[in-house]
Amino acid sequence: MTVKEALEKLRSFEDTSFALGHAGGILNYDGSTIAPKQSAKVRALTQGELSRISYELTTAPETVEMIETLKTNENELDFVTARKASELYRDLDHMRRIPKDLFVEYQKLCVESDAVWHEAKANNDYASFKPYLQKMFDMSRQIALCIEPDKDPYDTQLNEFERGLTAETCEKFFATLKAGIVPLLQKVIASPNQVREPLLEGNFPVTVQREFSDYIMRVMGLDPERSIIGETEHPFTTDFSKYDVRITTHYHEDAVLSSMYSVIHEGGHALYELNIGDDITTSCLGGGVSMAMHESQSRFYENIIGRSREFCGVILPWLTEHFPAQLSGLTQDRLYRAVNASAPSLIRTEADELTYCLHIMVRFELERMMYAGTITADDLPHEWNRLYKEYLGIDVPDDKRGVLQDSHWSFGAIGYFPSYAIGSAYGAQYLEEMNKSFDVFAAVAAGDFSPISDWFRERIWKYGKLYDPSDLFKKVCGEFRPEVYVKYLEDKFSGIYGLT
Ligand SMILES: [Zn+2]
């Protein structure tokens, strides 16, 4: 195959891959939002066929030849095409290192284990999930060793979500966070200035909350011609290119801000996807580059912007106008304190900004011990509870609110959790850098988010997967310095809780 032929093949390969992903994605979104329950029976068949076609396309001899031709002649290619070639080659190389039987068995395990986990969580029945969980750790470790025989398999697993990340980097990062957050949290708990806002505990009709979501999306600058919001039990974002990005939320009548923070968080993910460069959006370089980079956007908008005093000032008039009976008397300061109330809790997804990373540290330590073989699935619930006591000072009443709470391990996302914490910490460095170009909170106070999105678009969003995530972060902020995040948390929570 000549380079010219390979380039033609690349174009048709990208078109077909995109179309298959697009069709499968729409089916998934439809299935989790509005499709009738029984549609699942036939949808599984269609999805099976789509993945079969996709697998055959990826492993076809002419696809392999195309990728190898481009990789060998990388020097003749322009920057973007060379990056495509090396990304496709990396995936192919990984795939070829995993024995086919092992790969198929693992795919099957992921589907079965996820189904068992759902039941196990609903019934608080860890025993039924335990054998699957052990197998999931064993098999993913085995696959990691196939891909990189000479590397710590946990590092290989981390790289599935954040290329270049190592357990050593995570350990240093978490040690810095722990040294800053644990004593700070102790002072917060001991402070006489505890926060409770009874006004936010009223009843907030879902119909009005839906209007509130539309308002928040407008404030954030989410283009209504290219993005929509749906409703699901667990909020998520999915994208089919920069022209079609969908977020979901869940409304609670008794907690108006719960849905708002889901919308802001998913809105942050959506802004990233809506601003990928035109030239790469349907290519294999389309989409956000990694989980930590993605979470760094969503958590920046959710916490650094969404839980700022200035943002509270922006939304307060809308809230008091639309919920006059419930919220009369609410002030910017009361709202600001309420959205930053901090206390150790059981559930990661509901944790406040200060305690959130402690939840991640527990999971990181457990994954490392499981991969090292120092504990087994038999020990996991006990170890989980022990670490929750150590890090958060709380007793875990049952496995449902303990080791069974997250879905990640059930579908093989081992090594994913650190991305959330790293993404959160990246945010503090974005803020530091952004403030060199313009006054971030002055823009927020004016309700004008465009300087923020312009800043992200030009430095991160438009590049898609064109650079490795750690290189991209370095280009924008220099070295990763977790102490910036610790300082941010110390300043913010000392202010709110009147600490000296
Ligand atoms: Zn997220």
Characterize the structure shown.
The chain is mainly alpha-helical and 500 residues long. The protein folds into two domains: 3-148, no CATH class; 149-500, Neurolysin, domain 3 (Orthogonal Bundle). 65% of the residues lie in helices and 3% in strands. The chain has helices at 3-33, 39-59, 61-72, 79-97, 100-122, 126-147, 153-161, 167-190, 206-220, 256-274, 291-305, 309-322, 324-327, 332-339, 356-372, 380-392, 418-437, 440-445, 450-459, 469-477, 482-497; strands at residues 227-231, 237-239, 245-249. α5 packs antiparallel against α6 (126-147), α9 (206-220) runs parallel beside α10 (256-274) and α17 crosses α21 (482-497).
Defining key terms:
about 500 residues, mainly alpha, Neurolysin, domain 3, 21 helices, globular
Largest sheet: 3 strands, mixed
Order of helices and strands: HHHHHHHHHEEEHHHHHHHHHHHH
Structural class: mainly alpha
Strand order of the largest sheet: 1-3-2
CATH architecture classification of the largest domain: Orthogonal Bundle
Quaternary state of this entry equals single chain
Integer average pLDDT: 94
- Give the C-level CATH assignment of the largest domain: Mainly Alpha
- Provide the helix percentage: 55-70%
Strand tally is 3
Shape: globular
Low-confidence stretches: none
Proportion of strand residues: under 5%
Q: Compounds present?
A: zinc ion
